[in-house]
Amino acid sequence: MNLLKRLIPIFKDEVLDDNVSDIDQLQMATCVLLIEVSKSDDDFDIEEQKKIKSLIQKKFKISQDKIESLFSHSDEKHDSMTSLFDWTEIINNECSYGQKCMIIGFMWDIAYIDGKIDKYEDLTIRKVADLIYVKHKDFISLKNERAT
């Protein structure tokens, strides 16, 4: 038993050294989903990146230093992900329906930055909306709101 007590702090230190342990999973899930929309049209431009950081910073009220770290880690997680499910599951477990709609609205904000909606951006947002159980009428309403 003493050996186990001595090993637990060692494992905790390894987790803390990961640099991701202090990032909130909901913040990362939201950021990853916004990055997914941005990259879905194969054009991950600087304006989209700035908008993602701005939306996340305002939504979660986090510092400039933390947003840079969150964005960097989220981009890495995005590039290594195989499915949206892990991220949408976090949204489903932690968000109200209104918060889910807000995230879909943010996704439309990213998609509309260049003034047009690419078919892959639309498809990505539609897929996420389905996975987080946002009603189709709200999906369309949010799309129309953000278009103006």
SSE map:
Layout: H1 2-16, H2 25-40, H3 46-60, H4 64-80, H5 85-94, H6 97-111, H7 119-131, H8 136-147
Helix pairs in contact: 2-3, 2-4, 2-5, 2-6, 2-7, 3-4, 3-6, 6-7, 6-8
What can be said about this structure in brief?
The protein has 148 residues and is mostly helical. It is 76% helix and 0% strand.
Brief descriptors of the model:
8 helices; mainly alpha; globular; 0% strand; 148 residues
Overview of the molecule:
The protein has helices spanning 2-16, 25-40, 46-60, 64-80, 85-94, 97-111, 119-131, 136-147. With 148 residues, the protein is an all-alpha fold. The protein has one domain (25-147): TerB-like, CATH 1.10.3680. Helix 2 (25-40) crosses helix 4, helix 3 packs across helix 4 and helix 6 (97-111) packs across helix 8. The longest helix has 17 residues, at 64-80. It is globular and about 35 Å long. The relative contact order is 0.14. Residues 3-21 have low confidence and may be disordered.
